[in-house]
Amino acid sequence: MFRTALRNVLAHKARLLMTVLAVTLGVAFVSGTLVFTDTLGKSLSGQSAKSYDGVAVSVTSYGTSRDEDGRKEGEPGISQQTLDKVKALGGVASVSGRVSGFAGVGDEDGKLIGSGWANKGGNYAPVVDGKDPRYTFTDGTGPTADGQIALDRSTAATGRYRVGDTVRVATNGPVKEYTLTGVFTTEDGAVNAGGSLVLFDNAVAQRLYLQPGYYQELSIGARAGTTADRLLADVKPLLDAEHTRAQTGAALAAEQASDIKKQLGGMNQMLLGFAGIALFVGIFLIYNTFTMLVTQRTKELALLRAVGANRGQVIRSVLAEALLVGVLSSVIGLVTGIGLAVGMRSVMNAFDAKIPAGDLVVSPGTIGWALAIGVLVTTLAALLPAWRTGRIAPVAAMGSAHLPATAKSLVVRNVLGSVIGAAGVGGVLLGVSAGGDEGRMILAAGAFFMLIGMIVLLPLLSRPVIAAIRPVLQKLFGVPGKLAAQNAVRNPRRTAVTAASLAIGLTLVTALSVIGITMGQAVDRMSTDKLKADYRVSMAGGVGALDTSVAETLAGAPGIKAVSPQAIGYVTVGEDIRSVSGVTPQTIGQLLNIEVIGGSLDSLAKGEIAVAQKTAEKQKLTTGSTLQVRYDDGRQASLTVGAVYKDLEGLLSPYVMDNKILAAHSEEQYINEVYVNATGGESKAAQQAVVDALGKNPAMTVATRQDMRNEMGGLVNTALNIMYGLLGMALIISVLGVVNTLAMSVFERTQEIGMLRAIGLDRGRVKNMIRLEAVVISLFGAVLGVAIGVFLAWALGTTFASSVPDYALVLPFGRLGLFLLLAAVVGVLAAMWPARSAARLNMLTAIKTE
């Protein structure tokens, strides 16, 4: 029986190739994801470990904190005195203090070099022989004075800077010019992530990023014969245990490796989720393939029974075929997945992601998962067709080779599908009523059962739906149209399985499209309806805070009409810490469209506070109410509510006050952005005036309202395109399923097609009949997928509509119509081979076929 199974596998190469391809795609996605994330994790961990080479003990400062009365506790960092005490320990060979923060370097055109979020500045701190062991200089030396810097080799090459050149560098304040004294290489993660690293003289870096005489970290090297654990025990008594953390370099490297693994876990799970969708869709294709193969061999299997094979042997022979196909597919998928991982790495490097160098990691676990998934999916999908083969009686050898399922046999299926589908719809509606994160979890479970119910019910749905369009097909295409509609429902189970794979893919694509476009338009409305400012000034890449001097500089610049910082602070209200927006009272109304429900924004200039509507209702506050707050410095105040405004989530905090008052109680302000209005309105000249007023600072961006719309719309479109790409694999497998179904349909109707040819149906109309059948099946699945996708998008959107300003469901009819059109095109393309095969059938040979 095993030899028979092997022979059958080899005898149906073309049909089994589609099954192999379906499983291969899914397994490749899984193995490629695992190989890529394992490789990336090992590379990043190795890079992290390299950065701690020679570091026996690392000390990190948490900085100062405040007690309940607002008094400062602890020091801003690790003092020079503490460093000297550590250095004096007998087991210490060297001590290096570190400070770091944001620093942006401009190229010759004034544009920022690097990724924004990965642009760093740090201190050059010579330890041994006047050198800092963290950096290897390829040209020049490290900075030793106020006006000097050193650059990493990649940044220097990009900016075409050489030792002795003047370089424009900005932190979060005005841009300054420095003399380049050296170019170095480093294992710093920021540089390897596509950013830049600027080294300042030690005193300059301390002044920029912390406080003179203090460090954020200490890296301690051990003398020969002194263990890291012993040195750690000696260092700890010299530290402020409450405000610092000391650990061995090895422990810190291991901790960072663990953090890297967790960070990659989210990406890993997302990619594996899409791989799972592809494999789930592949199950339908595999099921159809083995159903087709079993149907084609009905006589052969019945004859095997007649000559002595029992049911178990026949079932095992079919499962053995599935096992062979699964093993072959898994091996090919694993190899393809490794290639995919290499490709992903190359693509990321091409986009300047600069993944650290390292060997490709193909773990035994990855190999095991690839083989197990491929074999398991194939075997499970073939289980039902194999079971059906055992029910073939020997007498069937003299009967019809392929009998369609009767309507009666679908009764149990329809009842079961109705129950599961109803439970799924109920779960979705329950999730909508619950709302929030809990509601979304319930909704996800309901959506799963709803899809399962749809899959089970598809045979029942196919008959009335396709029957409804039969008159249209007949009127438009004549006899081929009528026959195509009849053929599409001849075997409702097979039609349902084929349509299900398309329906699942388009359900997900449609839901993502509707949600993505709805969110994009909500953000667009926020930027156009709520934002009146001509420009928004922020740090490049959206990382870091602007210096307080930015708003002051712009307020005094010519051609500027109104300026207001968007400072973020915190106050304690009752037992809760609440965020506060610090603004300029005289101008904020000109820059944001704030709908005041009660009171006036002019009250902000009097030291009063404005409260968002939802917060006011929750805390039962009205205009004139008194609000007790405690500032960050511990001081308490009674503030009068001078205005209640409609929530502007994403633009304003629930509380708004004069920034001068907020700044007086904050040691350091976090200014996320500054809004600006030009005297003559928005124009290129006005935008350039803002850029010039900031000293053509490469670390800052001046965005127009259109830029802000494009920025948010770009994020949504990028996310959608990624999702489309990931779901594309499932849709490819769906296309293969349509091809399989049509091929099986042509085989079953060989004699019928011969008779049709004999009574006058020419080859062209035979092809049209097969093509139309494919289009009908494809559109049936597509319409169901689009309808369910819209429903799920509505349900999901309802759960977070309250947290998105002016949320309103948007149905992108153009895109939905495009999905249906593409489904029809898919049907036509999928029918090319089966239609050609049907048209080339020899008329007399086909009539004689049993």
Automatic annotation (TrEMBL):
- Highest taxon of the source? Bacteria
Note the InterPro entries from the entry.
ABC3_permease_C, MacB_PCD, Macrolide_Exporter_MacB
Topology relative to the lipid bilayer, per the entry, is: Multi-pass membrane protein
Question: What keywords are annotated for this sequence in UniProt?
Answer: Cell membrane, Membrane, Transmembrane, Transmembrane helix
Give every ABC3 transporter permease C-terminal domain span. 274-393, 726-842
**Membrane-spanning residues where?**
270-290, 322-347, 367-389, 410-435, 441-461, 496-519, 722-747, 774-796, 816-835
According to its UniProt record, where is this protein mainly located? Answer: membrane
Using the record's annotation, list all stretches that form the MacB-like periplasmic core domain: 17-236, 495-690
Q: Where found?
A: Cell membrane
One GO CC term on file = plasma membrane
State the similarity comment: Belongs to the ABC-4 integral membrane protein family.
Q: What is the protein's name according to its record? A: ABC transporter
